[in-house]
Design brief:
The complex is a heterodimer of chains A (263) and B (359).
Chain A: H1 17-34, H2 39-57, H3 67-99, H4 103-107, H5 113-143, H6 153-174, H7 178-195, H8 207-215, H9 217-228, H10 237-260
Helix pairs in contact in A: 1-5, 2-3, 2-5, 3-5, 3-6, 3-7, 3-9, 5-6, 6-9, 6-10, 9-10
Chain B: H1 29-32, E1 48-56, E2 63-72, E3 77-81, H2 88-96, E4 103-108, E5 111-112, H3 117-123, E6 124-127, H4 139-149, H5 154-167, H6 183-195, E7 201-205, H7 213-228, E8 232-237, H8 240-246, E9 249-254, E10 257-262, E11 274-281, E12 296-300, E13 303-309, H9 313-325, E14 329-336, H10 339-347, H11 352-355
Parallel strand pairs in B: 3-8, 3-9, 6-7, 7-8
Antiparallel strand pairs in B: 1-2, 1-4, 4-5, 9-10, 11-13, 11-14, 12-13
Helix pairs in contact in B: 4-5, 4-6
The chains are: A mainly alpha (263), B alpha/beta (359).
Chain lengths: 263, 359
């Protein structure tokens, strides 16, 4: 029997912040490469949807669009373009992975579960920000809205994406049946666009719906974005940040339980 | 299937008496660990120890693993054989940390893999039976990225990617997107992905599925090389004949239980004075009446395999020739018994390979 002495194949165990950052970076590369066929299309759809929403908004009105509505549209549509990837697209992709039986391979990869989330978050920003910028420009061109963009737009953008990614990540992983998570994502999107104070003042909603929205994240997303764009808002901005932080923590907690659960 | 049950909807022709002499029984597994293997690894490494592993699924209460104990040494290629639903995939999913055992322990060297699934993922590489998510990735990119995800250094991963592409003759598809790869090539790329930065244990679930015969040989070579560099390789397969040539030791699992364990040769000890008579029956021919000398037989499709005493070979040949002359069979062949015969004896079923007529 021939004997060949080769170096031991025992890999070293990796841990610590440097390894975590490395895992996040390589998972982001994997995510971007895996979705390279979708990302340009998705970014283009985001831009077109954002611009289209702004331009189409004016068609709801036969005469001059009320000033308040103009401001809410110009500052609300960018929020919608930011949350769609995390809240709607992310759970759909996770659902597709489950249906295609590729989910288990990805779950068996030797990276911290949090690195998977960070890679999604990076993609959410990459795809969402161009749509946000395009919709802001469309609002300015179409309605002549003069916005004063402050540095707070950066934390506002980061937090809107983070909250939506956390909720979407939790839905994708925690809901066992992909069809259910897909429907849930669509329902949330429908509620956010049509029945939340993102692109309309809360005062236009029935009282019960306005009260309900005070606990949901959508109105707060609009509040922090409007504040960052120099628009006066009747709601507490710190309170909105706190609410979104709470939703983010809840989403991440649920996601952590889901991805670490072993059947 | 219980002994004596129907075989592919046909009348039962298989008798199952119990494990062959010379084959280690589960209770003897601990003694079997010291069995010399043909692996060439001489260095240190981590030994995989699975002890009394039980897994009952909460949904449905199905007992998928029922007290399995086995060990895989560094450098050893260990086969897990068994029919569909035997519990093989459940077993390896517990090793990799995707499922939690109901009871029992899994250790890799000093590491408790049940308590620390993240350690299991770092120390074990896993090629699942399902396709890998590489539709939008180029073949070499998928391999390199997985190597980096597995913690490999960039230069080492790049070099090893090149070696694997060359060894598996994948150069024509190096820059092809996953969507343009055939099933077999995707499978080979998947193998390269999980072995470019291999763990201490590499788990391969049906690695040769869809792979053409030429590249299967290349794949087996690479699996052997994994053993040579000190990896413990757990090979989950239906393909008994291929496993016979590739593994150092193997276990046959059915109904969640480890039926027998040993080297491929040890499974054939009892049948050393026996031969296998293979008859290709005419389509729709009825099961021929077996002469008394036949020890056991099984039919899969038109393939009939009968195990006979070596001393009665002449009588058996005459019987087979009569069947050909009578038009019941088209041809026959006589050869040494194989691991497939031991597998049939233990499980009461032919392996997939047998079903494909490869007996």
């Amino acid at each position: 029997m021939a004997t060949v002495a080769l170096p031991a194949a025992t890999p070293r165990l990796r841990s610590g912040p440097v390894e975590w950052l490395r895992s996040c970076a390589v998972m982001a590369r994997w995510q971007l490469a895996s979705l390279r066929l979708f990302i340009p299309m998705l970014a283009a759809v985001e831009v077109l949807a954002g611009v289209g929403f702004v331009l189409g908004f004016g068609l709801f009105f036969t005469s001059r669009v009320p000033a308040t509505s103009v401001v809410y549209c110009a500052t609300g549509v960018p929020v919608i373009t930011l949350y769609i990837v995390g809240l709607v697209f992310l759970p759909q992709v996770v659902g597709m992975q489950k249906l295609a039986h590729t989910y288990e391979f990805l779950q068996s990869e030797p990276v911290p579960r949090s690195a998977g989330f960070v890679s999604w978050y990076a993609m959410n920003l990459l795809v969402g920000v161009p749509g946000m910028v395009a919709s802001l420009i469309a609002g300015w061109l179409r309605f002549g809205v003069s916005l004063h963009v402050s540095a707070a737009v950066i934390p506002a953008t980061l937090l809107v994406c983070l909250t939506s990614s956390a909720i979407g990540f939790a839905m994708g992983h925690a809901v066992a049946v992909p069809m259910v998570s897909n429907v849930l994502a669509q329902v949330l999107n429908f509620v956010a666009i049509g029945f939340s104070p993102i692109a309309m003042p809360a005062g236009q909603l029935p009282d019960w719906l306005a009260s309900l929205n005070r606990g949901l994240p959508f109105g707060s997303m609009g509040t922090i974005m409007r504040s960052a764009l120099g628009v006066a808002t009747p709601d507490s901005v710190p309170g909105a940040y706190a609410l979104l932080a709470g939703w983010t923590c809840a989403g991440l907690l649920l996601a952590a339980v889901a991805v670490m659960r072993r059947g | 299937m219980p002994p004596g049950g129907a075989l592919n909807g046909r009348m039962p022709m298989t008798s199952v008496n119990g494990p062959a002499a010379g084959v280690a029984l589960p209770k003897q597994a601990a003694e079997e660990v010291g069995t010399p293997v043909t692996a060439t690894w001489t260095g240190s490494g981590l030994r995989l120890c699975v002890t009394d592993l039980r897994k009952t699924y909460k949904r449905g209460g199905v007992v998928a693993n029922d007290g399995i104990t086995l060990e895989v040494a560094p450098g050893e290629v260990y086969g897990l054989l068994g029919p569909n639903g035997a519990g093989k995939t459940t077993l390896v999913k517990q090793v990799i940390g995707l499922l939690k055992p109901t009871s029992g322990t899994i250790h890799l060297g000093p590491h408790d893999l049940v308590a620390h699934p993240s350690v299991a993922r770092q120390l074990c590489s896993y090629l699942p039976q399902a396709p890998l998510p590489i539709d939008a990735l180029h073949a070499d990119e998928a391999i390199e990225l997985t190597g980096l995800i597995r913690g490999g250094e960039a230069a080492t991963v790049r070099r090893r990617t090149g070696e694997l592409i060359e060894a598996l003759q994948l150069d024509s598809w190096r820059r092809s997107l996953g969507t343009r790869l055939s099933g077999g090539v995707r499978r080979l790329v998947g193998f390269a992905m999980v072995t470019v930065s291999p763990g201490a244990v590499v788990i391969l679930d049906e690695p040769t599925n869809d792979v053409d015969p030429l590249r299967r040989r290349l794949l087996w070579n690479e699996i052997r090389r994994l053993g040579e560099r000190g990896c413990g390789v757990v090979l989950v397969t239906h393909n008994v004949l291929e496993a016979e040539k590739a593994v150092d030791r193997l276990a046959i699992i059915d109904h969640g239980r480890l039926l027998a364990e040993g080297t491929p040769s040890s499974f054939k000890v009892e049948s050393r004075d026996q031969l296998r008579l293979h008859l290709m029956l005419r389509p729709d021919a009825p099961d021929p009446e077996m002469p008394g000398l036949v020890i056991r037989s099984s039919r899969t499709g038109n393939n009939l395999v009968a195990v006979i005493p070596e001393a009665d070979a002449a009588v058996a040949i005459a019987w087979a020739r009569n069947l050909v002359d009578a038009g019941t069979a088209e041809e026959y062949g006589l050869g040494a018994t194989t691991l497939e015969d031991a597998y049939i004896k233990l499980t009461g079923r032919a392996s997939l390979d047998g079903e494909n007529g490869g007996s």
